[in-house]
Amino acid sequence: MSPIIMPTRREIASAKARLEYREGIFHIAVAGIAGSGKSSLINALRGLMNNDTRAAPTGVTEMTKRITRYPDPNAANPWVWYDVPGAGTLNIPDSQYFNDHGLYIFDCIIVLIDNRFMDTDVAILRHCARFCIPAYIVRSKSLQHITNIMNDVYGTDNDDNSLTAEERAERWNDVRGRYERQSRENVAQNLQQAGLPDQNLYLVDKDTMTRVYGNSVSNQTKVLDEVQLLTDPFTKARSRRSLSASSSSPYA
Length: 252
What we know:
Blueprint: H1 9-18, E1 26-32, H2 38-45, E2 68-71, E3 79-83, H3 94-100, E4 108-113, H4 119-131, E5 135-139, H5 142-154, H6 165-193, E6 201-203, H7 206-213, H8 226-245
Parallel strand pairs: 1-3, 1-4, 4-5, 5-6
Antiparallel strand pairs: 2-3
């Protein structure tokens, strides 16, 4: 395990200047491996579709080569999002990834994972724990994953027009439960292997997140953990900000 190197006050000030840190608002980083859907998730968290002119650029390959700052479209919302370059896009060892990107200045960090944890994911979570920065493990593209499991379990039978609405709902709930259990067990196992404490996993879909942000959820919308992800980080960040205000910590 690589040692955690504490940044100096000068390094903290430099990182805040480089990333346009502003007092009085919350700064939230989204990190993860290349291709995990960070930019799409940030757009959804801002209530934007990927084709919106204000959206972060997305693509099959990693689009982010440096940390990019994205204010919320609603100027009344006191927070800003940051798209962090994915692992494998820069020649930076995992042990340096956190410090070199200045991630220690953020109020909270969302770690977006795919099917399994990467070394960089573990390094970020370990550093977050050391700096007392709230971290949120998120798995996106969840509706697509559930659909894939549905096809594996039920095959073409799921397209049977003779199925009632109740039968379709029962199948959906069954597969959703399988996906949630498998995903949470996988995360718990990876955290245990890394020597990290267990923590919650947020399962989300970018299109659902966009609807939740815009209060346009209908009875047909399949909501997973999108509401919690839009509220939990800010609740924790406000609490942390209040505690830091009474301390001399340079990381707040």
